[in-house]
User: Fold these one by one.
Assistant:
Number 1:
Amino acid sequence: MGSFWIWWIVAVIHILPFYDSNPLIQTIHARTPQSPVQCNQSGCTLQNSYGAWGDRKDCYALNITYPTTEEQLRLAVSYAVQNNLKVKVVTKLSHTIPKLACPEGKTNTLLISTEKYDSGIQIDAANLAVTADSGVGLRALIDAVESAGFSLVAAPYWEGVSIGGLISTGAHGSSWWGKGGAVHDHVLGLKVIVPASESERYAKILWLEALDPLFNAAKVSLGVLGAISKVKLSLEHRFKRSISYNFTDDAHIEDVYINHAKQYEFADITWYPSKHTAVYRYDSRVPLDASGNGIYDFIGFQANSILISESVRAAENLLENTKSVNGKCLTAATTLEYKKLVGNGLKNNGLIFTGYPVVGHQGKMQTSGSCLYSTRFDTACAWDPRIKGLFFYESTAIFPASRFGNFIRDVRKLRDLNPENFCGVDNYNGILIRFIKASDAYLGQSEDSVVIDFNYYRANDALTPRLNEDVWEEVEQLAFFKYGAKPHWAKNRNLAFLGVQHKYPKFNQFIAIKHKLDPQSVFSSTWSEEILYGKESEKFDGCALEGLCICSEDRHCSPQMGYYCRQGLVYKEARVCRYSSSITTTSIA
Ligand SMILES: Cc1cc2nc3c(=O)[nH]c(=O)nc-3n(C[C@H](O)[C@H](O)[C@H](O)COP(=O)(O)OP(=O)(O)OC[C@H]3O[C@@H](n4cnc5c(N)ncnc54)[C@H](O)[C@@H]3O)c2cc1C
């Protein structure tokens, strides 16, 4: 991984001869990720794993409790209900990007952490099921079931999450086969602790299974129904997978994505638009006795030298400040070449990549996150908020499968106008395309769907515009408004949630159950309601820069820095902040 970033920096240095070879690098001795909650005598603050919420404002709570058993979890909910406190469940690392996990108010709030409620894992071999405490980490769960001879079929690609947190937000990997790539579609049962009457000691435990009318609401609940105590998931007998990546041209993505997903059980596609490259993941199950002991240690989730992460960020800031499109394109090219060279992080023997296919156990091929365990003082996850490392947005849009082809065609048109404007995203992971199946979960996908993820530079300051930000704003608006894509609940900038309630046919059923289980809205807050109901908040100067609004006047962008509110180039209804060197303040609203 280290050499990847060195390539990156070398590329930047080449195109920027004035690059200061000794940037101000603040190096700290970071290792494993920090707790998202920091408390002192006056209360606690909650961060997400990137260290910044969408609005960059801190989230406060009066207190936090760390139950270790189900009864302690029930008592915590009971205490909150009895004392009229507002509650949010937080997890060991709190990954949600939207402010879902932030409770209402500073003085009457309680965080209930599942960090220490993480040891119970019961495997029911006869019925191919596992039941875990909600704080159990995904990696611990995978290792436990694999060592007992079973596999979890679906999981997100990042293993730092907890089982309660990941199902609450609809987290997924990629598959259209069987029950599909979303973990909540493999849930057989759930225990949820909800507010109750005095005679029920203020909190009661509900055990929900498939036929229960509450089950489909509880499978993906954003934490607003109550505290999930246990999750029961289906298992399969342990199996292996064989993965190859085909780095090829991007000419036919819109024609082949459906067949690709049908042909390979764990298919995905990564599109690097500026490089006219698509990377097809050929990923299928193979028998347990197939030879190979490979792992997938995705390069984006490997530990990086802190010094290099900070240098990369410094270089990226410089390219932004100097509006160096060429610089971004050069670094995008070296990034892609490096990924090709190392098979994206696949390792045939667990150590290095020597060629395709890479065959390994499901437990080592689906999910990774080796930066979580970095023991060296000078390495960390590249986005660790304690260092001045990578800082980016993550947009994730979920399309009905049938509409996805036309979305790709529109993005291609936009790309063809000026491919170099797309280099920024190719410095991260391009556009990752994954597949999830239709679900019964009320806040899950009602039809077979295609998911895209893309990461892109976020400025240090909320009011600093970004190079070619209009391109990504147009892609966002194409996805969420022209093609009606739904936002991933735990990712995205606020604008992605506008009107989200109208995109879920069973939204009203979910809300009815929310009112029934938590009539006093103990588990809700302004922020989670903003996401759930997709409310538009008041616009202010610069709000479109961070995706807190869609611009309708120039002042929502940054006219003082030359960014004006303009219509989209392909999607004319889009309103984006575009740079113009000629001074004009005409509004298009
Ligand atoms: C580097 C990275 C990679 C990622 N990769 C993927 C991916 O491949 N696929 C994908 O779909 N997502 C991915 N995500 C998003 C991630 O899956 C979600 O953010 C997930 O919700 C995080 O789980 P968590 O344990 O951190 O939960 P949190 O973020 O802490 O919690 C999420 C929400 O669930 C609630 N909650 C948590 N536990 C409970 C509980 N026990 N009871 C009630 N409510 C609860 C919280 O209050 C909060 O509202 C990624 C995120 C990051 C940072």
Note: Residues 240 and 362 are 5 Å apart (CA to CA).
Number 2:
Amino acid sequence: MTVKPLEHLQFERLNPLEIDQVLQQNSLVYIPLGAFEWHGLHLPVGLDSLTSHGICLRAADKTGGLVMPPFYYGMSGSIWHHPHTILIEDEEIFLKILKTTLTRLETIGIKKVVIFTGHFSLKQLEALITLKKDWLSIQNSLELSIFSISDCPTVKIEADHGAIFETSVLAEIDPNLVKLENLPPIDTYPANDPDGNSKGDHRRDPNNILFGIFGDDPRHYDKLTGKVIVNKIVDWLIQSI
Ligand SMILES: [Zn+2]
């Protein structure tokens, strides 16, 4: 399946002449945030960054502006110790990188930045609230908006971790990266969720079939759901900025 690469909107791939040409039309830069963490056997560890990058590119395709390369460093959550997971504990480090990026973008004359996070651990969302507050407290010419993939009001499926929501979103953005065949067949090995709770501590047990996946069984994935979710998020972003 071919996915529109939108490489001409990726800031890091452009030379100064190409950059100026795009930004003269709309002085807008998207910064996609994500994380590097276990999402189950069927998904890549960089999922949150891959999805936020893809969504920002689709939004920029409609609004104009450029998209920064996605951040793969995100703030810690309750699964920081899972395999193949690298998260930041110290909020100061995370904010320093973001503030430096904003300051430099402001210095080169960017008028508006949209931060869009595909990673929504509580610490990540709290850090972003602090960032917004800090940015507003200083005199600046760069307008900052911040959105989380978990906050889109028109998407009725709750954002999750490696489950049906995130699996569907990535399958729409980059279908080749979703390997549902890595999970055991659902008929033989159905999810074993006490009281139907798909986010309980039993999913933290490495022997659980859906280890490290929090939310409804991703093996119920269907193609249309991902398309609907991503379209709604892109529309919401465009309308909000
Ligand atoms: Zn995720």
Note: The longest helix spans residues 223-240.
